[in-house]
Design goal:
Helices cover 41% and strands 21% of the residues. It is an alpha/beta fold and 228 residues long. It folds into 2 domains: 74 residues, no CATH class; 115 residues, 2-Layer Sandwich (Nucleotidyltransferase, domain 5), CATH 3.30.420. The protein has a 5-stranded mixed sheet with strand order 3-2-1-4-5. Strands 6-7 form a two-stranded antiparallel sheet. Helix 1 packs across helix 2. It is elongated, with a radius of gyration of 21 Å. The N and C termini lie far apart (56 Å).
Length: 228
């Protein structure tokens, strides 16, 4: 375990510009948490804490993981985004130009009293978080303004990393089928696949119709409609 921890620690410190003092200590602790997450394949506190290479019991490691996450000095700009950008650069090295990349926008319950709206990158059957927004209360539906905010932030993160000619596709369920999201995707030349309700009203050349009243031609799985 210590060998994998040291490799992670060395990489993170190099990416962080070889920090000193308390900043270096926090990177060391982060390295242990990442080590535990990789080994256990889980993001539960007890699992990520298990990667801390210290001679303390399991409960103490879980407590250490919780303290790191809740520490006021732990923030996404220092302990997430720099490493995410490096990771995404590596992902793109193994991405074929014609395949492109896939992003998923989704909302989910977080803990007992919070809900999280997140944009993730799909990679090897896993969703890698890029940008997220947390609110108090049950899941429900987030506002369209929240959808636009996290998607716009994801665009800002990815713009400097993704080559212009690599296609990007955004996936989302029926909560995200607003015209505003579609306009944002089109403005950035991104593809999108968004579920919609069967009673949604569409317009083709000024003529209204419902999704439930159309179906693909016999022998086909899809139906394409221009100028909708």
């Amino acid at each position: 375990m210590k060998n994998s921890f040291r490799r992670i620690e060395t990489q993170l410190k190099n990416l962080s510009g070889n920090p000193q003092g308390h900043a270096a200590t926090r990177i060391t602790r982060l390295s242990g948490l990442i080590n535990g997450m990789i080994r256990k394949g889980s993001s539960h506190l007890s699992d990520i804490g298990s990667g801390i290479p210290e001679d303390i019991d399991a409960n103490s490691k879980t407590t250490a993981a919780k303290r790191f996450i809740s520490n006021k000095w732990t923030d996404t700009e220092t302990h997430f985004l720099p490493f995410l950008q490096s990771f995404l650069g590596g992902v793109l090295m193994f991405t074929k130009l014609d395949q492109g990349i896939v992003l998923v926008i989704d909302g989910s319950q977080t803990g007992k009293n919070n809900a999280t709206l997140m944009v993730s990158l799909v990679w090897r059957n896993r969703a890698i978080p890029i940008i997220w927004f947390v609110k108090q209360g049950g899941k429900g539906h987030f506002k369209t303004a929240d959808h636009i905010k996290v998607l716009q932030q994801a665009i800002e993160v990815l713009q400097s990393i993704i080559p212009f000619d690599i296609p990007v596709t955004v996936l989302g369920d029926g909560e995200f089928d607003s015209a505003d999201i579609q306009r944002l995707c089109l403005a950035n030349k991104w593809n999108y696949v968004l579920r919609t309700a069967c009673d949604t009203v569409f317009y083709e050349d000024g003529e209204a119709f419902h999704a439930r009243n159309i179906s693909p031609p016999k022998g086909h799985d899809v139906m394409l409609i221009d100028q909708v």
